[in-house]
């Protein structure tokens, strides 16, 4: 496969990948890798494979292709290619939580000064190093790296890099429990996506929405957290971004736990008040708390929408529908194809949110 054919096949793979036909794109790129005699083309297709496997959460494969890319860069004897390949090696180790190795490879990148690519990539190298320091809980060095990356982004008018750094800063401030700043930075990232992101991958929007969801949850703004997390999950599902899907599921669990903790407290309060007022014979107060108790039960959906019986009082098996509503398994099995009675969706296939 010659140079021109290699370029055409790489572009074909990119088109397939952007159309969410990931497996087809991977097959095209693997054929290029096997058949191309053009080292520069092989280097580029390895970069495509590294990015794709990173977004699918296949980090060991990502590392495997990064190692091959290093060998290809050495074959080309070009310092620009070598700098880029070391950055991909650093990112691969970052994803695998090999943070010391990430820092080491990032320092190698920064030491390769004087090349055009190294100057362009310094901001991305600083970002990856900052993420590694954050993974090691070395907060001061992490912040210094993020600030350095942000300066590179501003000096080079690199909005994509600025967006990524803002998301990492959101994660940083979440970990040190400064939740106002943890919200500010991903909100800034979301603004950048809205203003400049028409030609960007939707992953930037998904990334900013996820970090906003985490901050909103920490601040107790659970409705806002749910909206952002749902938006992020929707994009992650469309693009097969399994790592982000996993993060969103964890965030959903945290939101529901936070919401349920408050509501269970209210439920127990109304139940206790009902007992007290019933004992005292104060009928009006008793009726008020009975109504509020049942409102809590309705809101928390602590009943089976098919048979009407309470959920949790007996040791019955439960099942969730794709719409997230829970029912007795025996009720679902006898329901046929009539759909969810809570939201009237037609699908009754059990699954997860």
UniProtKB/TrEMBL annotation:
Concerning CDD domains, the annotation shows: RING-H2_Rapsyn
TPR repeat residue intervals: 123-156
Q: What family is reported?
A: Belongs to the RAPsyn family.
A single GO cellular-component term on record = neuromuscular junction
> Protein name, please?
Receptor associated protein of the synapse
Q: Which organism is it from?
A: Falco tinnunculus
The Gene Ontology biological process annotation of the record reads:
positive regulation of neuromuscular synaptic transmission; synaptic transmission, cholinergic
- Top-rank taxon of the source lineage equals Eukaryota
Keyword Repeat recorded: yes
Task: Tell me a Gene Ontology molecular-function term this record carries.
Answer: protein-membrane adaptor activity
Keyword Zinc (UniProt): yes
Question: What UniProt keywords apply to this chain's record, in alphabetical order?
Answer: Metal-binding, Repeat, TPR repeat, Zinc, Zinc-finger
Q: Which residues form the RING-type domain?
A: 304-344
Q: Which Pfam families match?
A: Rapsyn_N (PF10579), TPR_8 (PF13181), zf-RING_2 (PF13639)
Q: Which InterPro entries match?
A: Postsynaptic (IPR001237), Postsynaptic_CS (IPR018293), RAPsyn (IPR052480), Rapsyn_myristoylation/link_N (IPR019568), TPR-like_helical_dom_sf (IPR011990), TPR_rpt (IPR019734), Znf_RING (IPR001841), Znf_RING/FYVE/PHD (IPR013083)
- PANTHER family membership: 43 KDA RECEPTOR-ASSOCIATED PROTEIN OF THE SYNAPSE
